[in-house]
Amino acid sequence: MNCLEFRRAVGAQPNTTAADVAAHAAQCPACARYQQELQQMDRLIHCALQIDVAPHRAVRRRRVVQWGLAASVLAAVLAGLVLWIANPRETLAEQVIEHTNSEAFAMVRTSENVDPAQVARVLSRSGVHLRSDAMAVSSATTCKFRGRQVPHLVVQTERGPVTVMVLAHEKGTGHIQKFNEGGYQGAIVPAPRGVLAVLGRDVPVEDVAAKVLAAVDYSTGG
Amino acid sequence: MSGPSDRSVAGVSTDSGSGERQRFEALCIPYRQDLLRFVFWLCRNRALAEDVTQETLLRAWRSFDTLEDRQAVRPWLLTIARRELARTFERKRLETVDIDEVVESVEAGPAVSDTHEVEEMRAAILQLEPTYREPLVLQVLFGYSTEQIAQHLAISTPAVLTRLYRARHLLRKKLLGEASDESVSDELS
To answer: Could you give the CA distance from residue B102 to residue B93 in angstroms, rounded to a whole number?
Structure first.
């Protein structure tokens, strides 16, 4: 693969894990830098695309004939809300999967880790403190999730990336809840405060959860 | 279209229709925000996006029995939304959009503590041609693979790769004033 082919490939897929792309990046610092810049730009694109979709109060045209149908959808939304309240655990797992899918660009196998100081900063916003930098964290961001800003980490394991969400405000059930949906295996794991949501594809999520719990300190925050 | 005869659209339902409706609600309603974002990035008009999202959910409800793979609800809904928007465009000639007004309407929301960088990027994305904007949204916002985008847009995978490359190239150019990579761009033309 030459530089032209490389830039064409990463321009379309900045997080590609194709072997020929990785091999070229390893031997061409300029192209490796170009790929990193595109990956950073993708994070910015993702933030820009996440527009606020809270109900809009602006005056809108609405056809009267659709009122009956609109009422049906409203009833559906209300019923959905009732279901959500009635079964919050199931919804939590689904929403974690949904959130992970929406940030799929971060779920890539990589040897590049973020600075432990950045991980500590992200965790500290939820009153959780990093006491060990033993984890290979490739992404550490604060994300809006179920109405709160929560730490979202991607931890690299030998078998691939794992999403870890530190949900200090979610009520735990006191036991591990496993799920297997949408191609992900995951677990909602009780934590000293709230829960950890951990998921990946064919990876030992419970081991990662244990590692994260060992590496962070909940005692000073909250 | 084969509508579900025993389902209630106006609120009257049989027991079986009620169960079907619960399944619809559980499967489809959680994707409302995704739909709204997707349609907004296609049409760049908040009010229209809300209308089309609502009509998409109604159309999805009516054809819920055609959903074959319940693990693939989101692609199914996004495809319906895309068609619904196209129908809207066919029905009426929409007014020209002023990008500055669109950016203001996006920023009018109370939520996100966006940086100047994010706002600049948002403005740049809004100015991309739809052929470049849509695959970029599908890839970055919804995590679609290039093959899934190809299927959604009914184009070839190489064409998707070209559009994605060009979208990023145009954004870099706009944000960084970058004139590099022209050779690659030309190569792809």
So the answer is: 18
